[in-house]
Amino acid sequence: MARRPRPDGSPNAAGHxxxxxxxxxxxxxxAGLPFVAVPAAIAVAGRHHPWIARPAAVTAAACAAFFRxxxxxxxxxxxxxxxPADGTISLVDEAVPPxxxxxxxxxxxxxxxxxxxxDVHVQRVPITGTVTxxxxxxxxxxxxxxxxxxxxxxxxxxxxxxxxxxxxHDVAVVQIAGLIARxxxxxxxxxxxxxxxxxxxxxxxxxxxxxxxxxxxxxxxLVGQRAVGAETVFAxxx
Length: 238
Known about the structure:
single chain; 238 residues; alpha+beta; Glucose Permease (Domain IIA); 2 domains; eight-stranded antiparallel sheet; globular
């Protein structure tokens, strides 16, 4: 990384340190700002009372870590389906997609990513496409790493129609609430054009994201593998 020059053209060490900090410390997702600002304000207000300031400061730091929003670079491979979230691959199988996805009642290839409370919790668009449906379904809050979470837990399902070559494919991505999650954020609406790797949503606090691929697609990841949102390739559609 080039250092910021001073007016006389010499390197600016302070500016360089600022640039390094920006690269190292990821920004916050906007949905996390209240969760960080409130305990931070309490910590400042109670700075003369350690029993108030310290727990508040720890809470602010923990929330800042949870809502971090790091920059990512997606692959340019045509037809690449990337991980919609950071986490551990918990399922690679075939399953009937949620009925609201509009993908039929036959099993399709599915890849599930489990997000612990320590993972980045923003969700990324798995493949470039146009949103054809967004549906929120109320449900339970069983542990997101259990297979039945796909069908019984609260969820938001988004389906994308994706141009690949001379044809199109439909891909569904499902945000699933976890054991302590109580809020799913999904910003896009029907008709929106989304780019692969773009941030589109968030789940608080601990969750799972399922991707349903077109019939015949071959997943390129394994159970137990760590996924990096927007970068790890799940499959390549042709």
